Amino acid sequence: MAVVFEKTNLLTDKQFHYCPGCNHGIIHRLVAEALDELHLDGNVVGVAPVGCSVFAYDYFNCDMFEAAHGRAPAVATGIKRAKPDTLVFTYQGDGDLASIGTAEIVHAAHRGEKISTIFVNNAIYGMTGGQMAPTTLIGQRTTTSPNGRDEAWCGAPIKMSEMLAAVPDSYYIERCAVNNNANIIKTKKAIKKAFQYQLEGKGFCMVEVLSTCPTNWGLSPVEALKWLEDNMIPYYPLGVYKDKGATK
Ligand SMILES: Cc1ncc(C[n+]2csc(CCOP(=O)(O)OP(=O)(O)O)c2C)c(N)n1
Ligand code: SF4
Fold first, then answer.
1. How many CB atoms are located within 10 Å of the residue 14 CB?
2. Which ligand 2 atom is nearest residue 130's CA?
3. Is the CB–ligand 1 distance for residue 145 below 6 Å?
4. Atom of ligand 2 nearest to the CA of 18
5. Do 189 and 182 meet the contact criterion of CB atoms below 8 Å apart?
6. Straight-line distance from the first to the last Cα atom of the chain, in angstroms, rounded to the nearest whole number
7. How confident is the model at residue 89 (pLDDT cuts 50, 70, 90)?
8. How far is the CA of 214 from the centre of ligand 2 (A)?
9. 85 C-alpha to center of ligand 2: Å?
10. Which residues sit with their C-beta closer than 6 Å to ligand 2?
11. CA of 243 to the centre of ligand 2 (A)
């Protein structure tokens, strides 16, 4: 019988620990497929975050490093500078990248580090029980904003793609989502492009992926996809924020 769908080589056989309906698993798969399609098996180092994807090192079938919370871009910088021919990526949540790790990501982008960052924005701290993140939407209820995030008290949710696109030496920044098939296909294309640019020696690239956390949002997996579409995408519009390699 003809095989039409197979597990990608760049994922191990370990079963994901993610909650039902969590989008981390889809995003892992897209990263692994992109690496596989670029024939990068054996010349890749990923840097795992602290957050629900802390065990990413068990799932990606390549060399992996575990960074302290938020420090993945600094760790990736060291690896890439020591091994410039290796593809180096970070995989980070919004608590990791946009809160405790804001300094690391901003400076890595400013230095134009030749690394690729996959930024998974689910608007909440998933692993620690659903606290408010810098990305939490105005009015969104979390365990630390039970009445909804108040802009006067907490400020506006941080838009990392817009911010990092403004950095002179960032090279490619795109925001995607995995809430439907069309967007999943676009996300994979964006991730592959970020890796391709790194292989060509270009500068800092980031793909932000809007993602669900049904458990801490208090929604079913299907409701969570709809919530993402109705609430996250209007505030975090999808699209390319910067692409220095785009042909005019
Ligand atoms: C130095 C330090 N501070 C705080 C924590 C607690 N902590 C672990 S994961 C996390 C937030 C994770 O949220 P996010 O990065 O959005 O990832 P998610 O779990 O939602 O995928 C926090 C605050 C920690 N592990 N280390
Ligand atoms: S807590 Fe949220 S982000 Fe973490 S695995 Fe569950 S659904 Fe995913």
1. 11
2. 1
3. no
4. 5
5. no
6. 45
7. very high
8. 7
9. 34
10. 18-19, 22, 24, 52, 122, 126-127, 213-216
11. 31
Whose atoms come closest to the Cα of 224: which ligand? Answer: 2
pLDDT bucket at 7, cuts 50 / 70 / 90? confident
Amino acid at 61: N
Fold of 24-242: Rossmann fold (3.40.50)
Q: Which ligand is nearest to the CA of 131?
A: 1
Residue with tokens 């670029």: 38
Please check whether residue 165 is in contact with residue 171, taking contact to mean a CB–CB distance below 8 angstroms.
no
SS3 labels along 180-216: CHHHHHHHHHHHHHHHHHHHCCCCEEEEEEECCCHHH
Closest CA to 30 of 232, 211, 221, 189: 189
> In this structure, are residues 10 and 41 in contact, taking their beta carbons and an 8 Å threshold?
yes
Q: How many CB atoms within 10 Å of residue 2?
A: 3
| Alpha-carbon distances of 243 from 38, 133, 165, 239, rounded to whole Å | 20, 28, 9, 11
Q: What is the pLDDT of residue 248?
A: 61
Sheet containing 239-243: order of strands: 63-66, 44-48, 87-93, 116-121, 204-210, 170-177, 239-243
Residue 37, Cα to own-chain centre: how many angstroms?
19
Q: Mean of the pLDDT values across residues 228-237?
A: 98
pLDDT tens digits, one per residue of 121-171: 999 999 999 999 999 999 999 999 999 999 999 999 999 999 999 999 999
pLDDT at 42: 84
